DNA sequence: CGGTTAGGGGTTTTT
DNA sequence: CCCCTAACCG
């Protein structure tokens, strides 16, 4: 049984009486085992599995715990446990209530927000202060939603009183954003939680116990969701030294005030670290000691065996560093899946990846940026999003911007014309227009008579379009109408299709997609002198179809289009691509462990990231990030830095954490001066 | 004059 | 790779 493997302190926590329990679990102290043990204990005590809710920070973590429970309990019991991230669980409940939820990617929502922001004139305010940019305001608004239950105005002016002259403009932008978001049918991550709270308040839940993993990174919005559910019992597991999501409103006070918020709360501490060697732990502790203590904490070393001292790797130049690390990894006897390169900023990843590739070492990165940000994948997502939500004008714009000579403005007119043809319905306007007059436009251009032009399009397209009123749109040109008819042809072939994978297969095989692949691969194969290398182009196009294949594979697990799309937004960047050495940001490394770890780019400015600190972050948080990074290592830890970036011509000073870790002596600090 | 497109500069972290 | 700016096109 899962409980047999626990040590005394873990067992005591796992068997805690029902009530409000906080488990302070330092890095590597068997947090996961304790949670699995706790659920084991609950199930063995006769608690119905569907009255257990396990909230984790990533869906992967939830999956791992569920998988471990399946070793001890029948699958049909374990599958009844509610488990997942706050967002995933909330989404599941709303979906069960038939709520109409169509998630939209944060970047898209930012673009929408910005477009509304730009309608307002901020220069009219009588002040020397310059207004926040649209994107900064968006981030603040999102932070507010996660961090505060007050009115935006109150929360905002507390921190930025000098922006008082803009407050009404800011509020108007936010109002406009909220209403436009609703009219397009979009739901943000934050909306998901807000709506879940509403749902839980109107239809109370009856959980016996809620377990919250990574409790130090829950924010006010999330903790108010937990409170709204009002469970009999709470089991929160966290470590304040690993709180690294302040930018998302993570509220360290959720931990520090736990015993005062919940009367009669019990606090347990897991202090024996089984993950790392004594010297890695003592390094981590030397650094984190510089942060204020909330609860006393003394780590005991539980690991036995050889103990290699952490090593400092210092190089002159950035790429020399990446190259040396790649070389060190190549000569390592550790399997590459057990090796990680960890960095503060994603910008470090490209250099490391390039050097590893040069030496033929496979590596994997978190899928998010590389996969879903790829334009060929975005196109597929946009195409499907518009089918799932015909009000999604943003998706339409992205699709039609691939049409030659079509930009956002023209695409928007086309969309509006189509909605007009369908008397309010985009799809009707596309498939079976009931109005054929062209709505009035802002354009003064009138290029009539494009139809009947002999060089126009192949005959079948012509007949496709001949019956469609969009061809008479003043912005219609032979090129963009050819694009349109490819689009229409594909849409018609998907008219009755409901299965996501079948849809994806048809899209990828379509003429429209091949047009896009051609555009993208041509652009990618174009050298600086403008020439297109045909073998490069073939390669680029192969890579695109490879991604499309992966996308198809992902879609095959879903029966409903909307569910597939939402799942891609909700858990999309949790999937890792490929096999090999792990390239991770510190944030992404949370909860993971590796035999050999390289923490790279340990220079002032990069790690700690001083740019962020000037924007409200603080050194304590950066120090926690460092702590998280080094405590991922089980046996070998390398701390690495470079003193110069030849591309940007920047000199670097070593990170203050290298001094705090006593990998560098204080005197050297004075010697390393800025030039 | 509005819109498109090409080219140069810059990049935080996540659900 | 994405965003912004400036030149270009109709």
Structure description:
The chain has 675 residues and is α/β, with parallel strands linked by helices. Helix content is 49%, strand content 11%. It contains 32 helices and 15 strands. Helix 10 runs parallel beside helix 11, helix 15 crosses helix 16 and helix 18 crosses helix 19. The longest helix has 22 residues. It starts with 7 loop residues before the first helix and ends with a helix. The C terminus is likely disordered.
Key features of this structure:
7-stranded mixed β-sheet; 32 helices; 675 residues; 15 strands; DNA-binding
Q: Please give the largest β-sheet.
A: 7 strands, mixed
The poorly predicted ranges are 442-462, 667-675
Structural class: alpha/beta
- Quote the distance from N terminus to C terminus: 62 Å
Task: Estimate what percentage of residues fall within beta strands.
Answer: 5-15%
What value does the average pLDDT take? 84
Count of alpha/pi helices:
32
